[in-house]
């Protein structure tokens, strides 16, 4: 069990407070900068604009720098950093439906990756951009956000079970 | 007088910085790592500092579990905490305040067909993102953490975006002719 700066009994109270503040800051700046991960790749393809793309690429490197920094400062909170050195390099950081083998997780990255990119570019923005546009007063983005909320219940009740059953029946079980 | 010029210059620079996406990228990366260092005792998973899809899932399912006494699946950090992660609420409020404060708030309506398409796309995108285990932002955080499958996700996402962009371009050219 990883331990962070705050002990568990304080951390469980700090979780909503800290993430709310983090979200407020990100939401404010995302509205100001028009931050969008999908838009970066789109603008580069269309106009060779690198402004938005720089935001997303900076995020990847800043995440590495941040995790490295806090791995030095609070090693106990970064139990599996750097992932390929502490775990199977092709297994994902937990988050996807569990109990499948490596090939399944590679498929889980490739197929949703392509579809998420394809669908969101046609809608005009990645999930955070849609959320920000919903706050700016766009009704269609608000419906996208409502779709995400309903979708999360559908995922928990149906889709996660279906996906695991399907992959296991295709021989991708761990 | 010179102090006024100096503060004016600082203000201008700060406002330019605040409007640059790379600054926000840097901020999200560092704060997501700090968030993990601070809060990981409450529960995993790792590289979970900021994610629109997962945090929406945690918020909706966590609130549903509290209010309606259901037992929908969610990440351990939200399950153990008194309330689920609130970053999506923060993004909504922060973006609303920013757009109001800078007079960019504007109601934009569309027809019912567009609403239905966006609603179904929302359902689909969230489910696809959750099958992978994160939206583009968590994919970036996971890549920074060293996860190769997340890098694959970003590469295929870029291919998907380029395909979609070229499709839009072709459709626009057809309409022009």
Structure overview:
The complex is a heterodimer of chains A (174) and B (177). In chain A, 52% of the residues are buried. Chain A has two domains: 1-87, no CATH class; 88-174, no CATH class. By secondary structure, chain A is mostly helical. Chain A is 73% helix and 0% strand. The model of chain A has no long low-confidence stretch (mean pLDDT 86). Chain B has 177 residues and is mostly helical. Chain B folds into two domains: 2-146, no CATH class; 147-177. Chain B has helices spanning 2-18, 21-39, 52-68, 76-80, 87-101, 112-132, 136-145, 148-176. In chain B, helix 7 runs antiparallel to helix 8. The chains are: A mainly alpha (174), B mainly alpha (177).
Please give the structural blueprint.
The complex is a heterodimer of chains A (174) and B (177).
Chain A: H1 8-33, H2 37-47, H3 51-73, H4 83-86, H5 102-123, H6 127-136, H7 139-169
Helix pairs in contact in A: 2-3, 6-7
Chain B: H1 2-18, H2 21-39, H3 52-68, H4 76-80, H5 87-101, H6 112-132, H7 136-145, H8 148-176
Helix pairs in contact in B: 7-8
Count of strand segments of chain A: 0
Q: Detail the poorly predicted runs of chain B.
A: none
Shape of chain B: globular
The quaternary state of the protein chains shown equals heterodimer
Major beta-sheet overview of chain A: none
Largest sheet of chain B: none
Mean pLDDT of chain B: 87
Helical coverage of chain B, percent range? over 70%
- What is the gyration radius of chain B calculated from CA atoms? 20 Å
What order do the SSEs of chain A take from the amino end to the carboxyl end, as H and E? HHHHHHH
Please estimate the helix content of chain A.
Answer: over 70%
How many structural domains can be distinguished in the coordinates of chain A? 2
Average pLDDT number of chain A = 86
Shape of chain A: globular
Uncertain segments of chain A are: none
How many domains of chain B, as an integer? 2
Give the radius of gyration of chain A. 19 Å
């Amino acid at each position: 069990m990883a331990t962070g700066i705050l002990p568990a009994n304080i951390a469980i109270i700090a979780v909503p407070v800290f993430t709310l503040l983090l979200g407020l800051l990100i939401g404010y700046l995302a509205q100001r900068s028009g931050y969008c991960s999908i838009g970066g790749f789109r603008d580069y393809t269309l106009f060779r604009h690198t402004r938005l793309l720089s935001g997303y690429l900076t995020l990847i490197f800043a995440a590495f720098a941040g995790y490295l920094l806090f791995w030095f400062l609070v090693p106990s909170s970064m139990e599996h950093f750097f992932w390929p050195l502490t775990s199977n390099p092709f297994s994902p950081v937990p988050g996807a439906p569990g109990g499948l083998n490596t090939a399944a997780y590679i498929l889980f990255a490739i197929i949703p990756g392509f579809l998420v990119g394809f669908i969101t570019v046609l809608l005009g923005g990645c999930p955070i951009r849609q959320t920000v546009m919903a706050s700016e007063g766009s009704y269609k983005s608000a419906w996208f956000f409502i779709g995400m909320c309903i979708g999360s219940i559908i995922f928990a009740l149906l889709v996660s079970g279906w996906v695991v059953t399907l992959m296991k029946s295709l021989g991708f079980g761990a | 007088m010179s102090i006024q010029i100096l503060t004016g210059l600082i203000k201008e620079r700060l406002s330019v910085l605040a409007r640059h996406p790379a600054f926000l990228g840097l901020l999200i990366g560092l704060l997501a790592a700090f968030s993990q260092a601070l809060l990981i005792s409450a529960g995993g998973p790792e590289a979970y500092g900021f994610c629109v899809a997962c945090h929406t899932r945690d918020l909706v399912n966590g609130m549903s579990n509290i209010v309606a006494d259901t037992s929908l699946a969610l990440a351990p950090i939200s399950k153990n905490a008194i309330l689920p992660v609130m970053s999506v609420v923060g993004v909504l409020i922060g973006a609303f305040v920013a757009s109001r404060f800078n007079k960019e708030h504007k109601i934009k309506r569309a027809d019912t067909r567009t609403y239905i398409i966006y609603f179904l796309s929302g359902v689909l995108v969230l489910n696809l993102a959750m099958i992978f285990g994160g939206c583009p932002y968590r994919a970036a955080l996971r890549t920074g953490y060293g996860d190769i499958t997340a890098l694959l996700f970003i590469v295929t996402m870029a291919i998907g975006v380029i395909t979609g962009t070229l499709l839009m371009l072709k459709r626009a050219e057809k309409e022009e002719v």
